[in-house]
Design goal:
The chain is 29% helix and 30% strand. The chain has 3 domains: 3-122, Nucleotidyltransferase, domain 5; 126-304, Nucleotidyltransferase, domain 5 (2-Layer Sandwich), CATH 3.30.420; 317-466. It is globular and about 70 Å long. It is built from 12 helices and 23 strands. An 8-stranded mixed sheet has the order 16-23-22-18-19-20-21-17. Strands 1, 2, 3, 4, 7 and 8 form a 6-stranded mixed sheet that branches. By secondary structure, the protein is α/β, with parallel strands linked by helices. A hairpin with a 2-residue loop joins strand 22 and strand 23 (460-467). Helix 6 (215-233) crosses helix 9 and helix 11 (387-404) packs across helix 12 (420-430). The chain starts with a strand and ends in a 5-residue tail after the last strand.
């Protein structure tokens, strides 16, 4: 069995902070005469964690690319690695920073100049999923079979993910963060986020830029923000003026609530008692952290670095004995994977599968960008498939994909077993306007990214499944 260590980095550029992680990943090639080639990660070690920096900004809406590049180059030197050593990883721009004017350009610039990256400008939903993975919430839900909520509270937003059986089942985001109110050392308010205006007004609280804030008023605001967040997470409230985007709260009640992010990291500290102690970082983060702690939610195992505690691993394999390639656009890179279980019941039920397909595609349409293909549909829990079932499956997949991704011209479908050619042909008949690629024998996890290479042997193509690799 051939083995190789690779270097992987993760870079998280957030609303208030930026941090870097370097990992060593041991990749093993387990090819033998009886199986198709396949590689997997068998060991991982976080070898370097940078200091946590204030995200460099030129102004309120523009990230300072030059200072960010200098910072990254210095951290590479500190970690003892060079650009040509980096073979995998993730550049993730999160929170309010993802909406800054040049965020998209930065993530691609860094990816091109710093290694072979999964490139993701993380929207609020994706950020919540990554944080839940890094904080340990997803793993804990798999171990306990309980519904675990992770609230990742940073500078500008609280990204929430509900996890069950090792998967994220619901995501939403609130305008709750430490830097939505900023103060100088004397307690004068230098900034109030416009997202708080309606919330403060509804709670009869007035705070203005330029005024000297009292400890009591700041404490009342932070208490209300923490309570509003937790009550919405617990489904005690069905709506909130702090929601980043419209969301219909399900009736699912989490059994455990964990808090990660920069605010989560401060929960273990003593309660600030004066405005000067509150404003130690120029914002209300320490006071917000105290009020989360006071309503008996737990601090996550990993907090500040939850979103980027790992850096990326690549699982390269070949697909496969049956494939359907109805496109000439190969190779393709960084397609997010959306898993849909085919059969969770004793018998095939097309109506229940359609409900799962619709929910998964709708969630994916809010998480990922509008690139084509927007996502790869990965079919798991796939039993024996009759001709009738195959036709029903193809119709449902194509209908729900087109309904959620209007304008998409390209559909990628992944299967765990050898049915890709027949399914690909059925999909092509259903939607002649779609380019179809259907692959078999793919080992995937929801939230992975996939690269599709050129054909390597007959119809078989090289496939690289890339997973954000989090430390345990």
């Amino acid at each position: 069995m051939l083995q190789k260590w690779i270097t992987s980095i993760g870079l998280d550029i957030g609303t208030s902070t930026t941090k870097l992680i370097v990992s060593k990943l041991l990749i093993a090639n387990q090819q033998n005469q009886f199986t198709l080639p396949g590689c997997q990660i068998i060991d991982r070690r976080v070898t370097y964690a940078s200091s946590i920096y204030t995200t460099p900004m030129l102004n309120d809406v523009e990230i300072d690319v030059q200072r960010l590049t200098v910072l990254l180059e210095q951290e590479y030197k500190n970690a003892g690695i060079s650009l040509d050593q980096v073979e995998a990883g993730a550049v993730i721009i999160t929170g309010e920073t993802a909406r800054k004017q040049n965020a998209e350009g930065i993530v691609h610039y860094l990816a091109e100049h710093a290694g072979d990256f999964v490139v993701a400008t993380a929207g609020a939903d994706l950020e919540g999923i990554l944080a839940a993975k890094g904080s340990g919430a997803i793993e804990r839900s798999a171990e306990t079979n309980a519904v675990i909520a992770n609230i990742d509270v940073g500078g500008g937003t609280a990204n929430i993910a509900l996890c069950q059986n090792g998967k994220v089942i619901e995501t939403f985001t609130l305008h709750v963060g430490g830097r939505l109110i900023r103060l100088n050392s004397d307690g004068f308010v230098t900034y109030i986020s416009p997202y708080l205006t309606e919330f403060l007004k509804n709670n009869s609280l007035i705070l203005r830029e330029g005024e000297k804030a009292t400890f009591e008023k700041l404490s009342s605001i932070c208490q209300l923000l923490a309570e509003e967040t937790v009550n919405y997470v617990k489904a005690l409230n069905q709506n909130s003026s702090l929601l980043v985007s419209p969301h219909t709260r399900s009736s699912i009640h989490p059994e455990t609530i964990m808090v990660s992010g920069g605010v989560g990291a401060m929960m273990e500290k003593q309660k600030p008692k004066t405005v000067k102690e509150v404003a130690i970082h120029g914002d209300v983060g320490p006071l917000l952290a105290y009020h989360f702690q006071s309503i008996q939610v737990s601090q996550a195992a990993e907090t500040t670095r939850a979103t980027v505690i790992g850096a990326g691993m690549q699982n390269t394999e070949v697909s496969g004995s049956t494939v359907y390639i109805g496109s000439k656009r190969l190779p393709l890179k960084n397609i997010p994977i959306v898993e849909i279980p085919v059969q969770q019941e004793e018998k095939w039920n097309p109506q229940l599968f359609q409900e799962r397909a619709r929910a998964s595609c709708m969630q994916a349409s809010t998480i990922f960008s509008a690139e084509d293909p927007p996502a790869a549909i990965a079919l798991s829990h796939f039993p024996y498939c009759s001709y009738k079932m195959l036709q029903e499956l193809a119709k449902i997949i194509s209908d729900e994909f087109i309904a959620c991704f209007k304008g998409a011209k390209f559909l990628v479908v992944l299967c765990e077993q050898d049915i890709a050619k027949a399914l690909g042909q059925a999909l092509a008949k259903q939607r002649k306007e779609l380019e179809i690629i259907c692959l078999d024998q793919i080992d995937f996890t929801h939230g992975d990214y996939i690269d599709l290479g050129l054909p390597v042997a007959g119809e078989a193509i090289s496939v690289s499944v890339k997973t954000l690799a989090f430390s345990s």
